[in-house]
Design a protein that fits this description.
Layout: E1 9-15, H1 18-32, E2 37-44, H2 57-61, E3 66-70, H3 79-99, E4 104-108, H4 112-123, E5 128-131, H5 142-152, E6 155-158, H6 161-169, E7 177-179, H7 183-187, H8 198-201, E8 208-212, H9 223-235, E9 242-246, H10 254-267, E10 271-274, H11 279-287, E11 291-294, H12 297-301, E12 309-313, E13 326-329, H13 333-344, H14 361-373
Parallel strand pairs: 1-2, 1-4, 2-3, 4-5, 5-6, 6-7, 8-9, 8-11, 9-10, 11-12, 12-13
Helix pairs in contact: 1-14, 3-4, 4-5, 9-10, 9-13
Length: 390
């Protein structure tokens, strides 16, 4: 008897940063272990750039197939160079998708390089599944990039019900929009200690803060001036507590921001700097800290699950849903210093409610993806919420 031939679905996940890859590792594992799915990882952005830690090796360690590596000559010193990187991504991914067909392309979030990837895929009639759409971040160009990718995507995984309704408000068919919670929040529940270095483990019995700050790109605030305010606030406590800085992303102005932070670390014995950390190592570090200081989305979405407070600085995350463990503050040294003192005076670890957490987010994402793959590609129509009709 002849063995029945089963067609494999070709699925790709495009990744450009440590952050988006770390969020979906478990979900990708489910896809990769499905005998009916061929999973390719398309690597670009800061994952391939030496100045941002060149951390693409983690994908190899996770035993995923890297189908392509497309470097973008990243230079974050000014917008014109960011746009140049976007043009390289558009050209190279346009060529790649012309020669490599996929049944589904998965994109997470709102990075500028992912906008180029989405355009290239949409022009080649490759259906897109977008993760983390519908969110608001008024201080960054991620805001309009995220909504733009939503309009090119056929399917959507949102992290809250509020965000699901917003994606539908943008004209997306309700049956194609799924609230699965935030996979990054679920990831915090399990930390593989084999991915945590001994130097980080040695910090667990010490009192320290983690600092992770990115540029605001839609406000008139200079990133370097904001970092100086943070450093000034930290200096009040630098002799008694350690401060662990994590490298910024590749947004406009991050090059100067990074140099200012490294200078501060060199001048202060109780300050440490890590350009990149494995997702498990980052979660371990924050879990055992007194608090995360900065403006990373992880402080809003993931850190509450780790049982740590977040001092969220400035406007980068303005508009996001947040839990009570997130403490918002203007980027002024005196105000940041006050919030740090509040944390010091309340060192007890609490169980925080996280509006982004749902049980088994990654497994739900996998299940929905399998069902999506069984559908035929169709041209999208605008869903009008006033009539409920396409």
């Amino acid at each position: 008897m002849k063995e029945k031939f089963v067609m494999k679905y070709k699925v790709a996940y495009a990744t450009g940063s440590r952050a988006d890859y770390g969020i979906v590792r478990k979900y990708l594992g489910y896809l990769n272990n499905d005998d009916n799915i061929q999973l390719d990882i398309l690597v670009t952005g800061s994952l391939l750039e030496k100045q941002y830690g060149s951390s693409y090796e983690i994908i190899e360690e996770d035993n995923f197939h890297m189908a392509c590596q497309i470097p973008l000559q990243l230079d974050s010193s000014k917008n014109s160079l960011i746009i140049k990187s976007m043009s390289i991504a558009l050209e190279k991914f346009g060529e790649y998708f012309e020669n490599n067909r996929y049944d589904l392309l998965i994109i997470l979030g709102d990075r500028y390089e992912m906008l180029s990837v989405a355009i290239a895929a949409a022009m080649n009639k490759i259906p897109i599944l977008h993760i983390h759409g519908g969110e608001i971040t008024l201080g960054n160009y991620d805001e309009f990039i995220r909504h733009s990718i939503t309009k090119m995507a056929h399917y959507h995984f949102t992290s809250t019900e509020e965000y699901r309704h917003r994606v539908i408000q943008l004209g997306e068919e309700p049956r194609n929009v799924f609230n699965i919670g935030a996979m990054g929040s679920e990831n915090c529940k399990t930390i593989d200690m084999s991915n945590v270095s001994e130097d980080l483990k040695s910090l667990a019995n010490k009192k320290y803060f983690v600092v992770l700050f990115h540029p605001e790109t839609l406000t008139n605030k200079e990133p370097i001036e904001q970092v100086k305010e943070i450093n000034k606030a930290i200096t009040c406590y630098i002799n008694e507590y350690q401060f662990i800085f994590i490298g910024s992303n590749a947004d406009t102005g991050s090059d100067k921001l990074r140099l200012e932070i490294k200078k501060y670390v060199q001048e202060n014995e109780n300050a440490l700097y890590y350009e990149n950390l494995h997702p498990d190592a980052y979660h371990y570090l924050v879990k055992h800290s007194l608090c995360l200081i900065g403006n990373s989305s992880s402080g809003i979405i993931e850190v509450p699950t780790l049982g740590a407070y977040t001092i969220n600085i400035g406007d980068r995350q303005k508009g996001r849903v947040r839990g009570e463990s997130v403490i918002d503050v203007e980027c002024k040294a005196s105000l940041i210093s006050e919030k740090i003192l509040e944390i010091i005076n309340n060192e007890s670890k609490d169980e925080f409610e996280n509006p982004y957490y749902l049980d088994e987010s990654s497994k739900k994402a996998y299940s929905y993806t399998v069902n999506i793959l069984k559908r035929n590609y169709i041209i999208k129509e605008f869903y009008d919420i006033s009539t409920g009709k396409k």
